[in-house]
Structures are given as C-alpha cells and as structure tokens.
Amino acid sequence: MSSGAAREARERFAAEARSQRPDLAALCLLLAAEADPDLDERAMDWAQIELDRLAGMLPYGLRGARAWASAVTELLGGRLGFHGTPADYERLSSSLLHEVLRRRRGLPILLSVVWTEVARRAGAPVYGLALPGHFVVGFGDPEEGVVVDPFAGGASLGAGPAELARAPREPARTLDIILRILNNIRAWASARPEQSAVALWALDLSLLLPSHPASLRYERARLLVERAEFTAGAAELEAYAEVVDAVDPGAAARIRAEAGSARALLN
User: Fold this and answer.
1) Full-model pTM
2) pLDDT digit string (tens) for 208-243?
3) Rounded to the nearest 5°, which phi and psi values hold at 126?
C-alpha cells in the first residue's frame, strides 16, 4: 500500500469511527488494510459481499433466539466449518476479517464478528458479548438469550460457564470491539520484538478512536524509543508529561526524565 493509500485508509477509519453508527465490518477491513498491502478497495468489497452471501444462505422467516442461533451455527460452524484452534493465536491473520473469511479460522472476537455480521444482515437479534478473556455471541434478549461460542464452532454456552454467569450480558459496542481487536494485535506484536511496526500501527489506530485509554499515548512514546526513534519518542513523552502533570506531578517528572534519557541516546 502506498503512503497516500495508507493515509487515506486511516482517514476513512477515523471518519467511520466517529460516525453516528460505525460499521463494524468496514472498520475491521480498514484495520486489516494496515497489515495487508494487497487489501485494496476491490478486496474489501469482496469481504462485504461474502458476508452478504453468507447471510443469504440462512433460512427465511426464522423466529426466536434459539432458532436463529441454531441456524447460524449450523451454517457457519457446521456446513462451512468456521472455528478456532490454539494455533490461531499465533497468527496475525487471525485478527484480520478478510483472512478469517478466507481461512474460516480466527480468534474468538473475529469469528464473533463474522457470526454477528452475517446474522445481522439476515435480520437476527444478535450482538457480541465481551466476557473476561473470551468473546462470544448472543441472540435475543441480552439477559435471557441464547449464547454461543464461535471459536468452538458455535457451541451453546447456556448458563454454565462461570464467566457467563458473573458477567453482565451487555451487548458490546462497535468501537469497544475494535479497540479489543487492536489490543489483541498489540499483544501479539509485543511478544515478537521484530513486529514493532505492527504494534505501532495498532497503537496509531487505537488513538484515532474517539474514546481510548490515555495511557496509550505513553505506550506509543515508549515504543518509538524502543524503535530507536529517540527524538520523536522523547517529544511524545514530554507531551504526555504535560497531560499527566495536572493530576500527578511526580509521575510527570518521571516521564520527563525518561524523555531526557531518550534524547541522551542520540549522543
């Protein structure tokens, strides 16, 4: 992807994230374009059309949460074989929507995106559920509806798992899903120092979201220093220290000291 195309993709990502009703699939694809230079407009259109095609394979006239959950699971987890394996946690492609559609493998949250986007297009009462350490899909009333696990091919969770029993069944918001996907990518990259460029673009996109943890600015500054971009990293540390100074002068002083150390590495 050229620098101009990359800039345009980020501008589109930021605009979509700030729209009144952000499109989950579009944001996932614009995110994936950072990782895959071949993911151009035509490839993004293919992914959207594929979601439409899968939705069209669902039976017409379904009613009730259990019927929807059963039909979507039978199609995606059964006939088409969408599911996850432990090995999928080792692949960046497991966090990229177009690759998950192609491979029919992915992380729980990306498989849940496929489940919800396909079901939503067909008219199902569907939503994602962000459990601690896992992501699943609900159908029907959030408090009483059917919950399935796309990573396990759509197996029904019922009310059994402790995390489901304890967690409030509040549908995950689109931008929270995107931030969680970006967090997964950052975690994948942080375990692989040679992939610091991936961590950097994941941070950059996170910071484009209208709501994000302020600490991400500090994390980005530290990453720039680790990448030997000492001047840029020091400048961002100093800017972050200005923000922190109002609430924690001691922490701000420590961050300014880090900035000084980063600048000293230039000598």
Assistant:
1) 0.91
2) 999 888 889 999 999 999 999 999 999 999 999 998
3) -130, 155
